[in-house]
């Protein structure tokens, strides 16, 4: 694990722990989700069994591609989660299960 965890939590409540990879020029596609019903449907399809999501990304490291699913700001404005998901596109799955557990417990 890298020393980055000592830098503290980001405004999204997560700690950056360790890079899975580094991709500085990925193709990033955004999917704008219009409402909670559609968000729930897409989450069940692409990120099942994860509680408390505000946005999520699908990573395709071998294709240098990433798809980020975000809420339409006219429905719910939460820009801090866009940066979190872009960081996944750049560095992969960089937070451990303990970050997710902490989020579910309401400590982030």
Please explain how this structure is put together.
By secondary structure, this protein is α+β, with helices and mostly antiparallel strands. The chain has one domain (3-104). Helices cover 29% and strands 18% of the residues. It contains three helices and three strands; from the N terminus they run βαββαα. The chain has helices at residues 36-46, 80-91, 97-104, and strands at residues 27-33, 56-60, 65-71. A three-stranded mixed beta sheet has the order 1-3-2. β2 (56-60) and β3 (65-71) form a beta hairpin. The chain is globular and about 35 Å long.
Structural class, by secondary structure, is alpha+beta
Indicate the mean pLDDT: 85
Mind telling me the C-alpha Rg? 14 Å
In the sheet with the most strands, the strands line up as 1-3-2
Distance between the termini: 20 Å
Shape: globular
Question: What string gives the helices and strands in order?
Answer: EHEEHH
Total count of domains: 1
Uncertain runs: 1-6
Keywords:
108 residues, alpha+beta, 29% helix
Brief description of this entry?
The chain is α+β, with helices and mostly antiparallel strands and 108 residues long.
Topology readout:
Blueprint: E1 27-33, H1 36-46, E2 56-60, E3 65-71, H2 80-91, H3 97-104
Parallel strand pairs: 1-3
Antiparallel strand pairs: 2-3
């Amino acid at each position: 694990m890298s020393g980055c965890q000592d830098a503290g939590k980001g405004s999204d409540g997560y700690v950056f722990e360790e890079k899975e990879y580094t991709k500085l020029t990925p193709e990033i596609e955004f999917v704008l989700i219009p409402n909670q019903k559609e968000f729930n449907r897409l989450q069940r399809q692409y990120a099942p069994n994860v509680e408390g999501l505000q946005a999520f990304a699908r990573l395709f490291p071998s294709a240098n591609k990433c798809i980020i699913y975000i809420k339409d700001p006219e429905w719910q404005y939460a820009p801090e989660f866009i940066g979190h998901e872009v960081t996944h596109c750049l560095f992969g799955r960089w937070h451990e299960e303990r970050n997710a557990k902490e989020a579910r417990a309401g400590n982030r």
